[in-house]
Specification:
Blueprint (H helix, E strand, L loop, with lengths): L6 H18 L4 H15 L4 E3 L7 E3 L7 H20 L4 E3 L8 E3 L12 H19 L4
Antiparallel strand pairs: 1-2, 3-4
């Protein structure tokens, strides 16, 4: 069973993403858990085991007749809850580059990733290098 995205789904997905930013921007683990629990209550249904398309047994966190937006919201909420409870609530954050507002999930082994991409990491390294060089009188 595949969900087809309809025009009306766009508005619902945008509404969910507005709620999702509260997960990303939660200041504490406790706040993040509260927001995630709200999303789970609102969007994820009790899990069910299915093999609807012959791809093997797997879990669904949505009603069988759920539309695209509801499926996306339920699956995202459930997957985030699983990942963050297993790997750590701090594993989702904003990029450390001041001018970047992207959020990312830290899949690194030690959980110390600071930047959303290598590009942002490199840009920040160049900025820090230039700032350090300016303070020592070194020429670029």
């Amino acid at each position: 069973m595949h969900c087809r995205a309809m025009r009306k789904d766009l508005e619902q997905v945008c509404e969910f993403l507005e709620l999702w930013t509260a997960v990303v921007d939660a200041g504490t683990e406790t706040k993040r858990v509260l927001v995630l629990n709200e999303l789970l209550t609102r969007f994820a249904t009790s899990p069910s085991i299915t093999n609807h398309d012959g791809s093997g047994w797997h879990l669904h966190y949505r009603d069988a007749d759920a539309g695209f937006a509801a499926t996306l919201a339920g699956a995202t909420s459930a997957a985030a809850a699983h990942f963050l409870t297993e790997r750590g609530m701090q594993r989702i954050r904003r990029c450390a580059l001041d001018e970047c507002t992207m959020a990312f999930v830290d899949f690194s082994r030690p959980g110390t990733q600071k930047y959303c991409t290598h590009r942002c990491a490199n840009r920040d390294a160049v900025r820090r290098h230039r700032a350090g060089s300016a303070g020592t009188g070194a020429r670029p």
